[in-house]
Fold these 4 entries.
Entry 1:
Amino acid sequence: MAETTRAVFRVVINGTIDAVWRELTKQGEAQAAVFNCWLHAQALAPGRKMQMRTGSGKYVMVVGEITEFTPPTRFAHTFRFTQFDDPECEVIYDLKQLPAGVECTLTVDRMPVGTRTAKNMQGGGTMITETLKALVETGRPPLKIRLMYWAFGAMEFVLPKKSSSKNWPL
Amino acid sequence: MNEDELDLLFHAMASQPRRAILEVVRENPGCNMNFVASHFEFSRIGVMKHIDVLEAANLVISERSGRERTLYFNPVPLQEVHEEWTDQYSRFFAGRLTHLKRMIEKGSK
């Protein structure tokens, strides 16, 4: 069994818990906090499959299964990048209302050590929490993130064929 | 980040032992207090006090696991400071310079 590790990212967001929850669970539009992907799910309930797809819908970046869905405090799902053959890990968002704002904790559990998944999630965790904060507090992601998303869209064709939506029915 | 949060962050980082503790936690996600304390000559109570300061600055996240506290490094506040004090252009050129510095210093060793 591969060695696994856990990473935790936390930020306090000056906004309402409902606004933060909405950014993490909304469907039918891009989730700017989560790499501008679109959340697709059989249903937002434990045991149901979910995916994060590109804006065009042609590629599936992440597949998983919802493990907990407790509005507006906890959303958890298993997580596997379709472009890598790494074992799945689990992503958990915990929201807590504090006097100063909403404490958002992103935990990535069972990350397979030394894999590309772990490398991506280590960097991705900071980016997701930071972008989520900017989104809720200012209404849009920082400029560098907007530029990156523009590049993602323009370069979508470089994604591997194995990530094509045709290979990942929901 | 507001001024109070910045004060907590810089206060936490302005201590050599706390930076060393943070490094141990960063290298060993999920470690406990005893593990961290085993790396230092000062008392366990001393380590606990330093960790409380790091936790107040949101640099360390602790989770209760039975009677133990497991510790994780949270990189988000440092990233926030980095982004607050640099822009797209200064980040690019500063990054080039730090890369150059690393390359030269690595080569001279």
Note: The longest helix of chain A spans residues 116-138.
Entry 2:
Amino acid sequence: MLHSTSRRATLTAAAFIAAGTLALTGCAAEGGEDGSTTLSFFSWDNEDVMGPVIEAFEAENPDITIEFSNAPPVVEYISTLQTRLLSGTAADVFILAAENKSNVIDGGYALNLDGESFMEPIAEFNQQTYSGADGTYGMSVASWGGGVVVNNDLLAEAGVTEFPSDWDGFLELAGTLSEAGITPYYDNAQEIPMTLNALLGDSFSGDPTIDAQIFEGETTFEEQWTPALETFNELFTEGLVSTDVVGLGGDQIIDEFVNGRVAMIATGPWNVGNIRSSAPDMDFAFMPFPAPDGAGYLPGAASPGYAINSATENVDAATAFLEFLSSPEGVELYNAQSSAITTTSNFDPVLDDSLEAIVPDVRDGNVYLAQIAWPRSQDVLNTEAIARIQEMILGQISPEGVAQAMDAKLAESDG
Amino acid sequence: MTATTSLPEVAPTGGTGPSHPAGTRGNTLLRLRESAADYVFYLPVLVVFVVLFAIPVVQSLYWSFTDFSVRSPEPEYVGFANYGRIFNDSSMMTALWFTLAYTIGTTLIVTVLAIPLAVVLNRRFVGRNLVRSVFFFPAIPSIAVLGLVWGFILSPIGSGVLNTVLDAVGGLGPVPWLSDPQLAQLSVILVGVWSQLGWHAILYLAYLQSIPSDLYEVATIDGASRRQQFFTITLPLLTPAVTVSQLLLLTNGLKVYDLPFTLTGGGPGYATYTMTQSIIQRGIAQAEFGQASALAVVFMLIVGAVVLLQLAVARRLEGRIR
């Protein structure tokens, strides 16, 4: 009896294993017998954003089925992608993030997209962002740019009616707000502050190769970063911004803003919906970051680019998918679902009114983000920069000391 | 009193009477079958150990001597270069210092508080189960989520939850809990203590309930005070629990990542930066698997040394108490 029960259990288990194996074999099939193709696609946008885009593509291309998967940005997406690339299980089409583009491009994991018709409407800045030594490897259809989000009601309360366009005017505005008993400004110091990125972008705008020169040893962080760091540090040395900002996360800063406890914050367009839902009556607007010589660059970057896996067997289907994603219909759907500032030449994005003042700079590519402009060791340098900037804010080291520490970390990282 | 039980004799498998060689062979076979059965039970654990620990450790050791990264998927031997880079990293010493401070701080404070808490929770009072649940609750949610919540509670500005309470109660100005390096370190340690205290108190409670009540009755008859009973009965008999609890606290403390990462992001500066944060940054974010493996090997040796030291000290203490 025992033996027969055991044998039956064994047979049942074997049947389950066989059925499971067959099911898995079915999952791994690239295409159906009817000539249809299953194209895998891995993104950090979720299904709410990409679902309608994929549905529209599949309606236009009934022979292609998209197998969609996603992981949240940035670290989780990158680690998942890198693991899949190394194990040979990466999707046919994936998004190439600026944070690890050099790893993917130099490792030969993506196809060169130069000369493809779908690259024609892509903005020059977006193409440059995802270019390697011999071509472009990511098709980026959008960019983002941060701004100083201003609570117009609090500015009016302090008697201010106009947002300044230069740095001195910004310091003066912060002083006026402070005298009126209003906390003037918060910028997230648990990442490289947006204000500093804007100041760096402004100081490098004459020469976009500065970062490459630093990494090739032709110049140093000390030489290039110190002036922008000194300017940024005036906010703290003049007592206009609380040093407590080093202990505040992004969510806490938004919370302070929507509750009217701070007049201005630095953030990106992804928080527009959050601000509108949390403070529906607030009169606010995104303003360009003031620079010493007037409004200059914004902190920002090209959005991730769609890349085709160099190991894919479905190049034609992948090409068709990218053709759709860069078409006016595909870009319109993506803009509608994500509220992204699309930069393609074939579609004018529909955006929230509050972004009006920063959209032209974003579409023109006047955006800079240090941590993705670095060609290598981005994460190690990013951590070092954040730590040292926090120490500068707390008065423990000088702006020059921050830049020197960055040079030392780069040297350490290069061994 | 000792009880003696005679084991039933095993009947010889063949033959008519118990012959010595046949009995020995039978006993040996029986022992082999029994030990084979034991090994069958060990097998799942052994498989898990080999697949999830032994193989990854050997792989990490191998990769630590290579330049394996996402850019270099075909690893090449680089000798001790990865190890050399670890000891040249200026942030590593700060990370090591805070990791040790967190580990020692949480281990000491949790041990000092959890034992008296367990003694209190072992007494009979109204709502005892509710109080036990309340203390155990912080062990349930993800510590990463708790870190985010505590970020709002310990916010260094005036609108932070704790600062609002301090202002309302005592008119105290905002305390820079997370923006002052020393206070940030203290805050991370205290939140770490809060999150682990209840769990370890329940562990001690389980051991307390196994102490025979006769011992306390005899001590009471002999006129021992509660304090004397605690130090001469409870504490010595809890020594094995202290060993287990401290081992878990030490290993969890040395591996800590999620709490400082979500509460302070490792700042201000490198004040709350930990060893695991550095390993994860190198290995996952930076995809320098060779470098991260070297870091993991060094870290494993440090953790092993600390744990062995703790076990040696604990065994010596247990020996003295016996």
Note: Chain B touches chain A through 40 residues (CB under 8 Å).
Entry 3:
Amino acid sequence: MNKLYLWGIIVTIAMLGATYLSVGMSKGGINGDIVNMLAIAGAVALVIITVFVVIKYVRQMQTDTAEGELADESWDNIGEYKNPLPFGWAIMFLGTMIWGMWYMLVGYPVNAYSQIGEYNEDVAAHNAKFNTQYASITGDRLIEMGESVFLAECKVCHGLSADGIDGKAANLNVRLEANTVKHVIENGSNNQLLGSEMPMPDRNGLFNMNSGALITDAEIAAVSAYVADGMDASNKAGAEAFAGVCASCHGPDGMGMEYVAPSIAAFNPTLVTNVLNHGKKGVIGTMPAFERLNAKQKEAVGAYITSLSAK
Amino acid sequence: MENRPLGYDYTVAKMFMLTTIVLGIVGMLIGVILAFELAFPSINTILGSGLAEYTNFSRLRPLHTDAVIFGFTISGVFATWYYVGQRVLKVNMAESPLLMFLGKLQFWLYVVTVAAVVVSLLAGVTTSKEYAEFEWPIDLAIVVVWVLFGVNMFGLIGMRREKSLYISVWYYIATFLGIAMLYLFNNMEVPTMLATSAAGETGIGSWYHSVSMYAGTNDALVQWWYGHNAVAFGFTVPIVAMIYYFLPKESGQAIYSYKLSLLSFWGLMFVYLWAGGHHLLFSTVPDWMQTMGSIFSIVLILPSWGSAINMLLTMKGEWQQVAASPLIKFMVLGSTFYMFSTLEGPIQAIKSVNAIAHFTDWIVGHVHDGVLGWVGFMIMAALYHMAPRVFKREIYSKSLMASQFWIQTLGVVLYFTSMWIAGITQGMMWRAHDEFGNLAYSFIDTVTVLHPYYAIRGVGGLLYLIGFLMFAYNIYKTMTAGKPLEKEPANASPMGA
Amino acid sequence: MFHWLEKNPFFFAVGVFVTIAFAGLIEIVPNFAEASRPVIGTTPYSTLELAGRNVYIKNSCNACHSQLIRPFKSETDRYGHYSLSGEYAFDRPFLWGSKRTGPDLHRVGNYRTTDWHENHMKDPAAVVPGSIMPKYTWMYTNLADIDTAFAEQLTVNQFFAVPYNKPVPMKDGSTTVVKMGGSVAEANALALAEAKEIVKDMKDQDVKDAVASGKIPEIVALIAYMNSLK
Ligand code: HEM
Ligand code: HEM
Ligand SMILES: [Ca+2]
Ligand SMILES: [Ca+2]
Ligand SMILES: [Cu+2]
């Protein structure tokens, strides 16, 4: 076999093999996605056509001889043959022009296609599939789904292991950290954590029903540590302050009360959903709202976050 | 023959040969730095964090593109024009002192403009439009340089002894007109110093700052009408002009077909301008413009391939020359890469393919197939061919040229294969949804997978740069130490061992 | 006919010019007026935002970041609603970009926040491990060019009728007015007021001090611009 063809085949196989490997390794892959398949087909066509057309002309360089009638002129001694157009080239040029005309005038006349229309169809199809396949997911599958949302959307702030990257965002492996609790007590909180406007007062509105006085610095320090440590009863001062100041709204166990105050003892999907709906501004920084997630995705990521600190 | 001038004056050609080489080294060196910055981000602060403002990827990137386009390539166009123009028109520049003066003026003004560009881009003075980053004072200088170029071109044409224009001259004329039209319209901007505040203050803020005449989608349309055709009239048309002269001249072969030249030329002129829409697929420009961009891109394969085929057929029956001369190898492989990128481009212009390819490294791969394999190879070949005739000496070393050829070929192959894989991988990862219908990857996952490909690209680019330095050295040695030639070689350039 | 042209450079050049010029006319002109109309809810940039936009341009962030969300499910999932032509009506120049080495930023204001940008711009890889984005540490000390941003507002207002100090319709039926200073001093005061709001959410003490003393570092302007991208 001619050495050229051998090289042509080697180049082709190398390019396509490398592409296959890289595509095969990614999760999306070809997976019946028409766009992916067309891109790969294009890449394949590109290599094969170029390699074999070039081989054709190299063969001509190797075997043919130059001949034909020369034109009269010669520019700096460069001559010019009056050879006819290469037939294949001429036909294809004409062919593509006719195809272009046909495409614009007959095939897909101006405005026959709308990219937004296509997008809407695509989204509708996706949503229909989503509703039949995933809308009823629960339990571990729900948590898995939530993890997938977390890894795509949340890890840039909260970190791969949800630890908040050194205090750059909330550490989601624990419900609350002491500085957040302290900040909220001192400044109040107004983040619609219950899903609707229901602020928590700042320290000037927090009475200790046992002492009958406004909450004190010592009580704030104690109760912050108490909440952050997961309400460990060995912290007596904290427990007392909690019972006196916080329990009336957050419940004696801190698990929250509907319409009154959110749970500060544990995460639950509703709380997370509320954070995702309204965002949250606190001592660490600002957490953006996530309008582009749907209700199921929010519930799922809520379940995932709940599972992190439940262990 | 009596009609022929006794000699040609290459003063201006030599000047631009110098800037071609110097700016080529600068531009490609920055390219290599950029490539390694993407693979190893710590290189962004290579000169310390105090200077990081001037060494980081984003400040340097426009400097790379502008140095290789307006520096390396355009210098190459000027250098070859001031060589080829005289010869195919049968005039000597020295016959007109005015043209000589304007040619030198053009060169010095060009050098000053380049210096201003380097300083301003490093300082972050840019309008952000790709390949049209310069603020209006530099635009004005560029217009003057370009007009001087045009005056020279048409001046020489006006003085010609050869009545009919050679194919290369068609392409040079088109280069001049095309760039002039595109550059002017894309750079329409209003200097902000013209505004007056309610309190009557004027000349507020930086004097060189301006705002584009066009807003949003319109600005995008004008920009990519420009950007696409800057490729046409900067990276294609003048390079075709070069190959139509240097390949037949070096090989001593006659052009395969006049008809093919003619149809390719007018076909290219007509079709190219319509294809710009392929840079705006799935954007907010109307669907019909995008469709036109796709269709004309496909049609464009043929006029592009026409010239490449014409060149390959010119070498028909001359395989021994391709095998023997590294100079001819550069040109033959150049046409091959030209065919590759003008087939790759149209494929990327198909809407569904562009949905994946756009915004990814596959486009960067496509760019460098063209610029490294076609533009770079052709300009180096042209200068190699010119050197013995301009300096009246043998090319210093043939074996150095041959090694350079293989090193750079390997460099180009590493560059485009790695970017091809990187682009397709990234494009598919962006689109991927997982089993739950969520996005499968966060953005950063699609960045970290590219690391090996970025590293390979860096190596490929480094090889290309090394080859370019070998080229610069070879030309330098030719000038200073090449064996002197008694008379000008008719064809095959003489080369030392 | 062609041989004749090839002997007549003037007509040859005219022929080339006509061939290349009219495609531009047909492709660009028809949609020109249509594309420049803002969609409801698009407001002109404030002085500080514009100064931040110029910081973005100065550092060629557009070399790595696009601002164009294409109408694909995968992109609207990642970045939000696909981009609309009228949203760019006040963008001079446009900043769509042509390479996504980093993510699209057209709506980044919806899902990233001041404190996050503050951490991220200083050291991207510390926030997003594996990030290849450069550190932009000098933005924390270089001062933003408010005067030029003001000159730019005046220019677009006077030459292109961009509506400053005028009610602009919003999506909910209300209107907003984006203020532009009457003098350089007034413009600087407006920008400073806006900067003060932003540094409230920032932690870098040097930046806070600078703003407190009336100076505006580039990072503050840039964050104002990032937050305006919605
Ligand atoms: C038939 C000819 C060609 C066609 C139809 C074509 C088509 C394309 C397409 C579809 C893109 C990508 C646009 C995007 O999605 O961002 C592109 C980009 C590009 N091409 Fe080509 N191409 C052709 C030939 C060439 C050649 C020969 C060169 C250089 C020698 C070249 C240089 C470029 C450059 C520099 C870009 C990048 C533009 C940017 O900054 O985004 N093209 N081309
Ligand atoms: C030593 C060889 C070179 C290397 C290593 C190199 C590397 C690079 C890199 C890393 C980029 C940025 C890609 C990105 O943003 O992801 C780039 C862009 C670019 N380079 Fe080069 N380059 C080289 C030579 C050249 C030459 C010789 C030319 C032109 C004659 C050229 C023209 C361009 C253009 C037009 C772009 C912009 C592409 C786009 O926006 O899509 N490069 N190059
Ligand atoms: Ca400009
Ligand atoms: Ca680009
Ligand atoms: Cu193009």
Note: The longest helix of chain A spans residues 34-63.
Entry 4:
Amino acid sequence: MHRYWLWLRRRARAAREIYEGLYVAPYRSQIYRAYRQEQDLFLLSAFSDLLGAPNPAAFYTLELYPELIAQFHEWHVRMGMPQAPDGGFRCC
Amino acid sequence: MSLDGDARRQVSDLLLRRPILFFGGKGGVGKTTLAATVALRSATSGRRTLLVSTDPAHSVGDALDVRLGNAAREVLPNLWAVEIDPAEEADRYIAGVKDRIATVTPPRLAAEVDRQIDIARVTPGAEEAALFDRFTRLMDDAGAVYDRVVFDTAPLGHTLRLLALPEQMQLWIRGLIGRRRKVNVLQRMWRNVAGAAAGDAHADGDPMLAVLEERQARFARARETVVDRARTAFIFVVVPERLPILETERAAGTLGRHGIPIGAVLVNRVRPREADGAGAARRSKEERDHLEDIERRFRAYPLVPVPLLPRDIQGVDDLRELGRRLFEPTGA
């Protein structure tokens, strides 16, 4: 009984991997890109004043700084700059 | 200009019972004196009353002859007063923000986050925003900590901005919340397809979303309060002179457009029709014209004449005397 159960689970996992390979993988990068994009848009609207566009609620969104700076760090690393560029956040 | 018995009772009721009153008007028309007079009268009648000055050039302390600060202090039985200090409020706000984010900031970034927040502290809008923040909290106190809160506001432009702010901020923050929710939906989708590679989920929801929603709720409550006819009234103070009349009329239009209810117009420093022999000179032709003008322009609101006292008003006794003249008129 137990062996039969293990066999069934192996088969189920294999089937899921095939399914994911065929249907999910192509979307994975798309979803990731959409997620990134939306995250950037959010930060852009929360901190538009950093780009010179006035933000009337700037003072009410200070709690978002940790996230902004963490994302900025991720960004400059992704862009091939191991150290934060001068003039902006000094995250590292 | 005089009120019949019924109208006068209505206005007295409004001035002495409405939980939140704003006194506004052009600089120098006597807002502070009348706000203090009404607050004192209301305290004397047994209601716990807080008198708040939001004017950066405070004079409530001068009117009551006491030293006031950023913390409410009981100056007489049932009467508390506070002069909001925008700089102190901004510092307090910044300290609160640092406290709230201490647990969500990666230690590696803590110093930089601190530095950025300190930079925000010195930006031009910071103190106004902090003043507004305190202002919304004091409105929440009306009917809770105090029976009534009477605001002596800054000259009109500043005050109109303060009262319109909740509406504008609400729109802005609502936009941010919508964006943030979308981020979270996509993040969930990403986590579903990427599994462990997507990193850890927030244990108890999204703290950033929680912060934004708390702000949004506060702005919504402030907005509801300033337009609530049953709880709030804006009292204009005007004097029979041309410029205050014109500015007040414009301000009344603006408040109307923002849906803020106007309770009454107090016409300050009205001279008696005839010289009363006690020092007050008689009404001039010019003043009579201005009074007629006031009656015409503000006929939509109850108009309350406040007689000119023959001397400067200074300290609690004078305020009580003015209160008697305002609430127990002997025929003006």
Note: Chain A has one domain: 2-78.
